[in-house]
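Here is one chain, start to finish.
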Amino acid sequence: MKSFRLPVILGVMLLRASPANASAQDDAYIAGYAAGVLKQGLKIDVPPLNVRDGVITLPVGNLKAADRDKAAQLLSEIPGVNAVKLSQAAGTQSTDEAPGGFQVPGDEAVSATDKIILPTGLLPSGHLFKPLLADPRWAHFSAAYRNYQNDNFDGKDIGSVSFGETIPFYRANIGETTAQWETGIQAAVFSDFNLGADSSDLVNTDFIASLYSSMRVGQFSAFGRVYHQSSHLGDEFLLRQVGTKFERVNLSYEGLDLRLSYELPFGVRIYGGGGGLFHREPDDLKIWSAQYGIEFRSPWRIEFAAMRPIIAVDLKNFEENK
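Its structure:
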């Protein structure tokens, strides 16, 4: 597998837009609610809990394993809670503000021993497996400009848009542990337009639909799916090929793939995996592919602009391209 794709993304991630005062009030309410739940449900008293943007940080250094798991489950069921972070620190630390408006989390916010617990049940919020930031074929809403240095491609200046989402249907804990699993669907439409043509011709549209299952244990997560993809050439592309030897190919296939991910301290994430096709049209399509990459989601965010710096690199190898 010598040929590969290398999308690189340098940018910022917009944070959830909500008024600061309202968010602070909601977090304060959740903190009080959480303390009451722990005292009533488990008969334990904890230091004042740190809650930010609906994420509860629960120090578990002094808790028994059974109490820790039960506490995480109870807190994740509180209305308005987006996640529960289990910190090995004995107590919570406040964040310090650095020059330039960056928020610098305490050490417990980026510790490799922390665990994140998400709400369970039907149609839960969040995802156990974080989206791949630089993967151009991850199901999401996007618009991008791409430049191709390949004379065989229909145009070099390409506008690409996608419409899609990963929707979890159900999430549950695995036994009496902090491990979790979820299942749902992932679907998207990807279209490419030749911006160099007079009418910005539609070159191709790909449709992808899949059933997926994912799981998370601490900083480790996995994402597997069974998917269908079909590709449809654009009308303008077909019209330009009238009178030539162009032969339309009905490109459609089903496959399965698996990706493994591990989150390191300070916002660094590495991942890798691969997949294969089990139904192909045409049937001489090569089967195997591989994918791997690295991401950096800054633990410091620019408060005045409500943005978070990111850097991501995604690489793919296809047997079809040798």
